[in-house]
Design brief:
The chain is mainly alpha-helical and 307 residues long. It is 49% helix and 0% strand. It binds a DNA duplex (21 and 21 nucleotides) through residues 1-3, 5-7, 14-17, 36-38, 50-52, 54-56, 58-60, 87-90, 101-103, 105-107, 109-111. Keywords: DNA-binding, Nucleus, Repeat.
Length: 307
DNA sequence: AAACTGACCAACCGCTCTAGA
DNA sequence: GTCTAGAGCGGTTGGTCAGTT
C-alpha cells in the first residue's frame, strides 16, 4: 500500500519559498495553468517537487486566498462545523471561500482548541469535559462547597450533593438520555423550579427541537460521543452540503443570560417558554470557573438552593 | 543583552483515494 | 482485476518571532 514519495529526488530544494520562486510559480500558472504538477517544476524552472509547488500554490499563492484574522463569525462557524465534521479540514474549509484547510487546521490547533479547553469543553468530542479530576479538582463550584462545609457530617452531605450535581449536570447537558434528575433532589429543583413538566431546556415545545436534536445526535453532546461515522450518515452528508450559516440551525443555540430574576444560583436560565432558553450552562460554568473570589453571599445563595 | 519559552504558521511527510492504462 | 501516477488530505515538524526571565 502507499506509494513512494514524489519528493525523493536528490537535489530538490525544500524549505521556505523565496519571492523569486513564488514569482516563477505565479507567472507559470498564470500563463499555462497547472496541468500536471509533476511536470510543472521543470517547465517553470523551479528546483522543487511538484507536490511542493501544488501546496505552495493552493495554500499561499492562489489569487483567491483570503488572508488575515478570522472573524468571530468564522470562529464560531468553524467550531460548529468541527463538532459535526471532525478533523475533516478540507470539508470545513469548503464552507469558507478563500480559506485553506491548512489555515483552518492551524487556527484550530493554535486558538480554538485551547479556547474550548478553557471553557471546559473537550475539543475532540465537543462535550463538556466530564472526567472527575477536571470537575472536582478544578471546579470552584465544588471546591467552594467543600471549603464552606468544613465538618465531617456536612462534608459527606456535600459529597452527595457533588455526585447529584454531577449526575444532573450531565443530564442537563445531555437531554437525549432518558434519565432525569431525581425528584425532590437539589438539581431537580434546579431544573424544575416551578414543577413545570415542560421545563426541560430542550423542550418539545421548542420549534427548533427536532433540528437541535439532529445536531445532538450528529455529534455535539451526543449520548455516546462523536460518532458521525456510525450514525446518521445521511444527515452528515446533508450537513456537509450546507452553507456554514445554515449549520446554526443544527447546532444548539447558547443564548445570552436573561434577566437576573430568571436565573437560578447556577446562572442557568429557567424560563422554559423561551426557545432561546435551550441552555446557557456553558456560559454559566465558564463564568463560575472564571470567578476569582466568589462572594460569601454567592455561596450562601447556592447552598440554600441545593441543600 | 542574552537565554529561554511559547505561539504561530508554512511546509513537509506519509498515507489514501481516484482515474486511466 | 491490477498496477501506477497524480492529487488530496490530515498529522506533524521546524523556523521565526515576540514576550519573559
Amino acid at each position: 500500500m502507499g506509494r513512494s514519495p514524489c519528493c525523493d529526488e536528490i537535489g530538490v530544494k525544500k524549505g521556505p519559498w523565496t519571492p523569486e520562486e513564488d514569482k516563477k510559480l505565479i507567472d507559470f500558472v498564470a500563463r499555462n495553468g497547472h496541468g500536471s504538477w509533476r511536470n510543472l517544476p521543470k517547465l517553470a524552472g523551479l528546483n522543487r517537487c511538484g507536490k511542493s509547488c501544488r501546496l505552495r500554490w493552493t495554500n499561499y499563492l492562489r489569487p483567491d486566498i483570503k488572508r488575515g484574522k478570522f472573524s468571530e463569525e468564522e470562529e464560531s462557524a468553524i467550531i460548529k462545523l468541527h463538532s459535526v465534521l471532525g478533523n475533516r479540514w478540507s470539508k470545513i474549509a469548503s464552507h469558507f471561500p478563500g480559506r485553506t484547510d491548512n489555515e483552518i487546521k492551524n487556527f484550530w490547533n493554535t486558538h480554538l482548541r485551547k479556547k474550548l479547553l478553557q471553557m471546559g469543553i473537550d475539543p475532540n468530542t465537543h462535550k463538556p469535559r466530564t472526567d472527575l479530576n477536571h470537575l472536582l479538582n478544578n471546579s470552584q463550584l465544588f471546591n467552594g462547597i467543600a471549603n464552606y462545609l468544613n465538618n465531617d457530617h456536612l462534608m459527606l452531605q456535600a459529597e452527595l450533593v457533588k455526585l447529584q450535581l454531577l449526575q444532573n449536570l450531565c443530564q442537563l447537558l445531555n437531554p437525549t438520555t432518558p434519565s432525569q434528575a431525581l425528584p425532590g433532589t437539589p438539581l431537580d429543583r434546579l431544573q424544575n423550579p416551578n414543577s413545570n413538566p415542560s421545563r426541560a431546556s430542550f423542550s418539545t415545545q421548542n420549534p427548533n427541537s427536532s433540528q437541535l436534536q439532529a445536531g445532538f445526535t450528529s455529534g455535539f453532546m451526543s449520548g455516546s460521543g462523536f460518532e458521525y461515522e456510525d450514525k446518521n450518515k445521511a444527515k452528515m452528508e446533508e450537513m456537509e452540503n450546507l452553507d456554514y450559516v445554515q449549520v446554526e440551525n443544527y447546532y444548539p443555540i447558547l443564548p445570552p443570560l436573561t434577566s437576573e430574576s430568571e436565573t437560578n444560583p447556577l446562572g442557568c436560565s429557567t424560563n422554559s417558554n423561551s426557545p432561546s432558553s435551550s441552555s446557557s450552562i456553558f456560559d454559566s460554568l465558564e463564568s463560575l470557573m472564571n470567578e476569582d473570589e466568589p462572594s460569601e453571599s454567592y455561596w450562601n445563595n447556592l447552598l440554600r438552593s441545593t441543600i
